[in-house]
Write a structure and sequence with these properties.
elongated
Length: about 100
């Protein structure tokens, strides 16, 4: 699959722009590269937030939430432990996960 880049215009507040410029100088990278890295990290973090919220609200099993976050189930379970989130998993969730594998 080819990675198709698209140019998007966005307004950046002055304090954020200053921080981007600082990072750019520290890492000796262009502002564009820094912004791409920041966006990538933000997307991953946002997907994890969504997955955790769906898991907390019983809208997704741990397996489905891990898929939303695009991380291995073992990593998702480690995050649940780190965040002190109860791991509610019963026969219903097990059945849903098995159906998802078939």
């Amino acid at each position: 699959m080819m990675n198709m880049a698209e140019t998007v215009s966005v307004r950046v507040d002055k304090p954020d722009l200053i921080e981007i410029e600082k990072i750019s100088k520290l890492e000796k990278k262009s502002k564009s590269n820094v912004l791409r890295e920041v966006i990538d990290k933000g997307i991953k973090e946002k997907k994890l937030d969504i997955a955790l919220e769906k898991f907390r609200n019983n809208e997704a099993t741990a397996w489905k939430a891990a898929k939303i976050a695009n991380i291995p189930l073992t990593r998702f379970m480690d995050i649940l432990v780190q965040k002190g989130i109860d791991f509610h998993y019963g026969v219903k969730e097990l059945k849903e996960d098995f159906e998802g594998l078939i």
